[in-house]
Amino acid sequence: MILDANRSLTAAAGAAGLALLSGCSAMGVARDPVTPQRPTFSNDTRTTGFGSFEIEAGAELDPSDRYGLETRVSIGLSESSEFFVGWLPYQNIDARGVDVEGPGDVRLGWKQRLMDETEELPATAIQLSTSLPAGEEEPFISSGFVDFYGAIIADRTFGRLGLTGFYQLGILGTAVPGDNDTEHTFSLGGTWAYDDLWNLGLETAVIYEPEIGENPFLGTAYAQYKLSEFVVVDGGVRLGLNADADDFILFVGMTTNLGRYF
Hints:
- The protein has one helix at residues 2-22, and strands at 52-62, 66-78, 81-95, 98-102, 106-115, 123-132, 147-158, 161-172, 181-193, 198-208, 217-228, 231-240, 248-260.
- By secondary structure, the protein is mainly beta.
- Strand 7 (147-158) and strand 8 form a beta hairpin.
């Protein structure tokens, strides 16, 4: 128990350090408004400002069996596209008969907004990404294989209410060459701009894995607070809505735009 407490404190300290680092930017560098994509399963159609860097850092905790850190860096390639790198620098999972810890896989991706929202039509975007097995070859931390993902995204706003629909197809590597598994992620999320500083959000998501036979169904509730146009902090809870999902996970994080560098 003492060891688990120390590990939790270490994870929390690491998250705080990442957050502090993400809150810093070079003096005199022009910065764009932040476009946080965490803490939901889905991403929306917004992209990081052209030429600027954005970093997300966060921690998640299931008091009974897991905790970890997560980071993501996005680079604005144009006014409507971005490249991103995501990584789980530390995870500890003690559930379903396993007790493992270590870094997770690396996710590389590209997002292209196809159309801005109009009076008649929602904003739309596509996203392509791949997961590289850079983590520990342990269950629940790394699949040990290269995975590929493609997603379509749509956003629509109604006054203070914003809605995001997200579908992602995953092609998952297996030990048998050419025999891939599939993964389908569906999510619907909404945000409410309570005022100029606070956003409140809800999301439901289901991950359908026909070959694996597990289909987690999850609900996420969260709040975001704008420290400035360039820094947003968030916190909330993710609830498992069926037997295939974790009971609940608490999370906190920060997203900041570091400024334009090209």
